[in-house]
Design goal:
The complex is a heterodimer of chains A (240) and B (620).
Chain A (H helix, E strand, L loop, with lengths): L1 E11 L2 E11 L3 E6 L6 H8 L7 E6 L2 E2 L4 H6 L1 E4 L11 H11 L4 H14 L15 H13 L5 E5 L7 H16 L3 E6 L2 H7 L2 E6 L2 E6 L1 H8 L5 H10 L1
Parallel strand pairs in A: 3-8, 3-9, 6-7, 7-8
Antiparallel strand pairs in A: 1-2, 1-4, 4-5, 9-10
Helix pairs in contact in A: 3-5, 4-5
Chain B lengths: L2 H18 L1 H4 L5 H41 L6 E3 L2 E3 L1 H27 L8 H8 L4 H16 L1 H17 L5 H31 L6 H28 L4 H18 L5 H15 L6 H31 L23 H15 L1 H6 L1 H21 L3 H10 L2 H19 L13 H6 L4 H30 L3 H28 L8 H5 L3 H37 L8 H14 L5 H36 L3
Antiparallel strand pairs in B: 1-2
The chains are: A alpha/beta (240), B mainly alpha (620).
């Protein structure tokens, strides 16, 4: 479970990237985080994962504050960044072992999970190659595998579908659904509204750092009192 | 000429300037951050000017000694390789020799850097999709390569000709001619280098690999740097001896003479032609010959562009197939669990050894610097037959110096290798991955410092093994290694905290993280400051205090004017066994060890919270 409590962040004085955001992402659900470019989606995800610190408010992951108990909070999620910029000259498997060491994953479990997920995301033949030679999609797959090595209860994904081919995108969606079914919490940002509509139990729409709506897709439609597609509703909400 | 060429050159230069002097030209609103960057860039420019002065200065002294000697010569005919050569021809041969060296520098720089311009970056890919002619594209690259690679050699050729002009009192217009000759000479070198480089890369595809070229460049440049160093030292030693200078001048003229008859004669012919133009041999016709030189170089440029532009584009789009190695994912040995600090240590080690820019500016310095300094000293002493004398006087030196040399050298090597001072910057954009992981900052820094200490240990070995042959005492070696490690530990803690304060995480090229990182410069300054502080600690704990104790024990008068050297003499007595002061010296060493450990504990305690809080504050 992830709770975002009154969280704000600004990069420039007087201009808030995220403004007093409140969200509660419960277990057993897929939560879609929607918004146009520059809405504050990635900033929010970076605050949840501790990459940047919030100016105000707090974020709680499974009862642990990312500010006060960052290590415990981080032990409870797996994260897939939007930009898989790995500059280290490591091979795919070396990177996965590095991540597994950080999460203290035992030898047996890491072997089992690396084999399982590299098969699922079709990367097993490339794990002996340097990451620097990987394509964008391959890096994305590596990040997906790495994020699942600790079998996280909370799975945070920033634009996960971008760069993936349809087969892998399908495998990812299935994995997301499976994890939610198993009681996990899946939180992801996306631009692709069809995917949100198809996958999410709940969505939140953010624009200019402010939360515009939070609820199920049906609730969004009810609030607008229309039977429109998510795309139309999204456009209406964002355009104000 | 197509205007696109200049636009492409401008674009490349802007990119280069943006990377090198980002803060100086940016006009962002954040004034504090910007002013910090400006200060850093100004310091960087100062370093660049310093490098120019060092290189230009030593070359200038070399030229000055030769041309000054020749200008005072009686201008009689000279015997070269059994042939009688007129004095003016002799001068031409000597200028030609300097030109050949400059030609070689430009040629090599172009050859070694060309692979960097042959990889298909995002920008290049985009340019290839535009309707730009391959000749235009290639011509812009050639001009850009010339501008970037001939900065130092242009400086050297201008210095050579200006010094010649000064001593031989040429008229003012010659200085303008010299400027044009310098451009022609260096452009000619680039024009010869580019087709040879392209043909070689076409033939041996592995040369297109930037990593291979980075390592290859070291194996080519290193012997040249050492060779030039030795060559220059020989000249400097004999600078006041006219007969030696004469022999030197004759021998370099002889080299040019032989080269002009070798297979390289067409290239040497043009170089000698330019030297003849510079020497004033053409008299009033000099402008005519100058125009001819410009036209010839332009013609060669045109021919190269027309003939090789297609090859350039085809090499640019050529891909290297990587060899697929057999790999079994199911093998248990692929999965080993390690403690966090060890896994960070491993990651650091793999990154630094696999990334040529990190390796060549880091661990390689540890081997390179002692090698160059050692070889230079060896050659210098060997030439002056002073090696035995120096070795015997080193052996007579008090033991305290052994520790001082060892610690000082390990500081200097550690700081020049920039391993700890760039350790956070080297993470680059991946630092955000580190921050999202459940890593205790202290474990993270433990891994980083262990890695830096590993290289300090190598530094200590590199320094202490030769020192051991001078002072063959194992206890001294162990003690000094221990003290060096302790002080290196403190040094790395401070270096990492500097990098942590303002890490350079946004870089596209790894060189920017190490070479163009001001934190590395600050760390070198701190390393030097540390050596001074260490010297005073040595003086207090190994000299002042023991001397006072010694004076008390022996009831000898306390020599307050010359404490340090008095103790040195007395410590020598200890070596001869005449005065029993071993325990005083040993007590001093022990105190030093305790003090170093205490300093380390104090610094760890002082920096612990800073490391933790700063780690979380960095936002890439």
């Amino acid at each position: 479970m992830i709770e975002i409590i009154d969280t704000s962040k600004s990069y420039e004085k007087g201009k808030k990237a995220v403004d007093r955001l409140n969200l509660k992402i419960g277990n057993s659900m897929i939560f879609g985080f929607l918004g146009p470019n520059g809405a504050g989606k990635t900033t929010t995800i970076k605050m949840i994962t501790g990459i940047i610190s919030a100016d105000e408010g707090d974020i709680i992951v499974d009862g642990y504050s990312i500010k006060k108990e960052p290590l415990n909070a981080k032990m409870n999620f797996g994260y897939v960044p939007d930009n898989s910029d790995i500059v280290w000259r490591l091979k795919g498997l070396e990177y996965l072992n590095f991540i597994a060491d950080i999460y203290r994953v035992s030898k047996e479990k890491r072997k089992e999970r690396i084999e399982k997920y590299s098969e699922l995301f079709d990367l097993k033949d490339n794990l002996n190659q340097y990451i620097t030679t990987y394509s964008r999609g391959m890096k994305q797959k590596l990040m997906l595998i790495a994020s699942l090595l600790n079998d996280p209860k909370n799975w945070i994904l920033d634009e996960p579908i971008v760069g993936l081919d349809p087969i892998i995108a399908h495998a990812l969606k299935t994995e997301m659904q499976q994890r939610a079914k198993d009681g996990g919490c899946v939180f992801f940002s996306t631009h692709i509204l069809e995917i949100a509509e198809q996958l999410c139990d709940k969505i939140a729409i953010i624009n200019k750092g402010c939360l515009l709506f939070e609820g199920t897709i049906e609730e969004v439609k009810e609030a607008k009192n229309q039977e429109n597609s998510l795309e139309q509703l999204f456009l209406e909400l964002v355009d104000g | 000429m197509d205007k696109t060429i200049f636009k492409l050159i401008g674009f490349n230069l802007k990119q280069l300037l943006h990377v090198q002097f980002e803060g100086l030209f940016s006009n962002k609103n954040n004034k504090t951050k910007n002013s910090k960057k400006v200060i850093s860039r100004i310091l960087m420019i100062c370093l660049l000017i310093y490098a120019f002065l060092v290189i230009g200065g030593s070359w200038g002294v070399l030229c000055n000694s030769i041309f000054k000697y020749l200008s005072l010569n009686d201008k009689a005919d000279i015997q070269i390789d059994g042939q009688s050569v007129r004095f003016d021809e002799y001068i031409v041969l000597i200028i030609s020799f300097f030109f050949i060296m400059i030609f070689l520098i430009s040629f090599l720089f172009t050859f070694l850097s060309i692979s960097s311009y042959l990889s298909l970056s995002g920008t290049e890919e985009y340019f290839l999709t535009l309707p730009i002619k391959s000749t235009t594209f290639f011509a812009s690259k050639v001009i850009y390569l010339t501008l970037v690679n001939t900065i130092y050699s242009m400086l050297l050729s201008i210095i050579t000709l200006s010094v010649y002009g000064f001593h031989f009192k040429v008229s003012f217009d010659y200085y303008i001619i010299y400027l044009i000759i310098s451009v022609c000479l260096n452009l000619f070198a680039v024009m010869i280098s580019i087709p040879i480089s392209l043909l070689l890369i076409r033939l041996f595809k592995f040369l297109k690999n930037k990593d291979t070229m980075a390592y290859l460049s070291i194996f080519i440049i290193l012997p040249l740097v050492i060779g030039y160093n030795i060559f220059q030292q020989n000249i400097m030693q004999n600078i006041s001896d006219p007969s030696m200078l004469n022999n030197f001048a004759v021998s370099i003229a002889s080299i040019t003479y032989s080269l002009s008859k070798s297979i390289l004669s067409p290239i040497i012919f043009f170089i000698v032609f330019l030297a003849r133009l510079a020497s004033g041999s053409f008299g009033l016709f000099r402008y005519l010959y100058l125009i001819f030189s410009i036209l010839l170089v332009t013609f060669i440029f045109y021919i190269i562009v027309v003939l090789f532009s297609r090859m350039y584009v085809s090499i640019l789009t050529m891909t290297n197939r990587s060899r697929k190695t057999s790999f079994n994912l199911k093998r248990n040995s692929n999965y080993k669990q390690k403690p966090i600090y060890l896994t960070i240590f491993k990651k650091e080690n793999l990154s630094i050894f696999r990334e040529p820019s990190f390796f060549l500016n880091g661990p390689f310095v540890i081997l390179l610097l002692p090698l160059i300094i050692g070889l230079s000293i060896f050659v210098q002493l060997n030439t002056s037959k002073g090696l035995d004398n120096v070795l015997s006087s080193l052996k007579q030196m008090p033991e305290i110096y052994y520790i001082y040399i060892s610690v000082l050298a390990s500081f200097i090597l550690s700081s020049f290798a920039s391993i700890s001072s760039t350790s956070i910057s080297r993470e680059g954009k991946s630092f955000s991955i580190i921050k999202s992981l459940p890593i205790d900052p202290l474990q993270y820094f433990k891994g980083k410092i262990s890695h830096a200490l590993f290289f300090s240990f190598i530094c200590i070995l590199v320094i202490n093994i030769p020192l051991y042959f001078i002072f063959p005492k194992i206890e001294l070696l162990l003690f000094s290694a221990l003290v060096s490690l302790l002080f290196s530990f403190i040094f790395h803690l401070i270096s990492i905290s500097i990098d942590l304060l303002n890490p350079k995480l946004s870089w596209e090229n790894p060189v920017q993280a190490v070479k163009q990182n001001m934190n590395a410069v600050y760390s070198i300054l701190i390393g030097l400051l540390f050596s001074v502080l260490f010297f005073f600690q040595m003086k207090i704990f190994l000299a002042d205090i023991p001397t006072k104790i010694f004076a008390k024990f022996t009831k000898m008068p306390y020599d307050s004017n010359n404490i340090f050297y008095t103790l040195m003499r007395r410590t020598l007595f200890l070596a001869n066994g005449t005065i029993r002061t071993d325990y005083i010296f040993c007590a001093g060493l022990f105190i030093l060890l305790v003090i170093a450990s205490l300093e380390l504990v104090v610094i760890i305690l002082a920096l612990k919270n800073y490391f933790k809080s700063r780690f979380y504050k960095i936002e890439s």
